[in-house]
Amino acid sequence: MVLCRVIMGNMELLRPGTQQFHPSSEDVDSGVDDLENPRHYVIWNVNMNTHIYPEFVVSFKLPSGARGNKHFL
């Protein structure tokens, strides 16, 4: 798993079911479902290389008996 730092910048409101794939103007960097209390975030492809920074890689190894054993899941 890779944990990333994301720069949201100027956000625009995206309505549910929108088919928007690009920012509506050069003034916005990302989209959210609610400007005051966002739960869903969209980082536009044009900003992926400048607004998303990988910070940590998390790896783990399950015990050998964990496969199929619900106690370890």
UniProtKB/TrEMBL annotation:
Top-level taxonomic group: Eukaryota
Residues of the PARP catalytic domain: 1-73
Molecular function terms, GO-annotated: NAD+ poly-ADP-ribosyltransferase activity
Organism of origin: Rubroshorea leprosula
Name of this chain's protein: PARP catalytic domain-containing protein
PANTHER family membership: INACTIVE POLY [ADP-RIBOSE] POLYMERASE SRO1-RELATED, INACTIVE POLY [ADP-RIBOSE] POLYMERASE SRO4-RELATED
Lineage: Eukaryota, Viridiplantae, Streptophyta, Embryophyta, Tracheophyta
